[in-house]
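check this:
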Amino acid sequence: MKNTIKALAAVALLTGVTGCSSDYLDQPPYEQVPVENLSQSIETFEAAVNGMCQTMYILWNPNATERYGNGEGYIQSFYGDSPSPDFAYTWLWGTQAQYQAWATMQRDDRSGGSYAWIYCYSLINQANTLLTKIDDVVAAENTKDFLKAQILTMRAHAYIRLMQVYGPRFEDSENGNKLCVVLKLEPSTDNEELSDYKTVMAQIYDDLDEAIKLYESSNGRRSAGFQPNLNIAQGLYSRIALINHDWAKAQEMANAGRQGYSIMSAEDYKKGFADPTSEWMWYNNRDRSNNGYYSWGASFTCNGGYASAYTWAGSGGQMSYDLYKQIFDKNNSDVRCELFWMPDKVNKYVNYNLDENIFWDPNYVQSAYLNMWLISPELTESISLWLKHNTPAGFSDGFGIYVYDDEDEASAGNPDFYNAIFSALKGAGYQAMVQFGAQIKFWSYAEDLGDCSHPFMRASELLLNEAEAALEQGDESTAQACLEELNKNRMDEYTCTATGDALKDEIRLYRRMELWGEGDTWFSMKRWNVTASRKGWVANDPNSGNFLKGAYEGTYPPSFANGWTYQVPDIETDYNQIINSQINK
């Protein structure tokens, strides 16, 4: 296998996966720097570190049986969002649909469950290779220290992802003795055994402790938003500490990590989530995010390539009506609610008094994809004006719905005009417009098939981490203050007076709403050790939900699928008899 590392773009060393299968290990790197040349100059080494970081969002194909992936976006959407009870996505197919149906985590084959394994061990192997060479680089010590800190941060991040997917919950860890993933600290493809929970946790802590110390002593600065820095290391520390129920460390690191990043305003929240704001801490470089139809934005932005091409079947993802209603009923001025096509929107910008129950009327909703039939000019106008008032500046609507320009006439309603629009669209073959729960939170520069930035970490997450960790230690006033800091930027007149279990429920509820579509919900619900439930859509039953009946509805208790734990994939076990002996003993 080639002993090289990609320097200027993503995956170079897919030999970093622990086993020795032949097909997925020999992926050709886009650009290569031989390992023996890494220490030739600091510029070469910096380029290699930069390339490792870009693995998080540059297109690569792990093996012939797995679809192309885009790194972190794939992990967030297919592992963190698709199986959650808050995210509906009606036109996924094949492997992708299996994530949402909770089928992938129940088997060990190459259909989906292997992607996180390959992606994370690619990052780990690149990090290990760089760590073996950094001492040979001729450069100022503070420069080397900062680079080493970045490498350690990336290795810790990869192990955190592995623990989220393949690791047990804290409650299920058998006092830290349960086996989970392979701990590799050297760049090799030798077969190695699974390590236990406490050993992997200790290594993540060690990597982050050392990284933080090096960041602080080096006083270095990153050159791009996709690279880690001190704040990112602290934010990652808060993530793993929450998983490990290390509440004091989680609170400390969450608070430290968010310093210097202010919570974005309600106005900024509605700007499309395509470019960084004041609170984006870690994110991809939009200029390099265009991976064609495999871009994150092509599928998961409301006007991306797939959402635009298949308005009859998908629109970048839909929110669970159950989650939405809980938030809307608390405060209907919440800006986050404005970004989802839900029953309360049907009369918001028109005066037709349309019945909200049409969202469960099979004459208006097509049951195969839960999209709203183009059934009347009144409904067409209602959807059109909702989009008109909420399409961010600089973006074009990808739903194929006419957005009327005249504010005065549109707000008054113009059924004759919309009758013409309705007739023209119907004559052109349009059958449906926007799905029940469709999101317009995420937008892309659609002409580039989904070109957009996407956050890997925001200050809002760390604020919520801090609230949760504080409450677990009995510090209700800090938890309340954190919720108020967040929600005063999202709605009118929010105050938090909840205590005890009610406060815990409020923190969790607003976390699910705030971070919806950003790859957090399933991971959070796993560590909360709670049941996930989805209600299917039932015709003429407004008490039902908006998941496809039969396909994606269901109830998943904490015990489901071995405690929501993905199995070690067969790309590893087929070639690693050491692990087989551990699993099968």
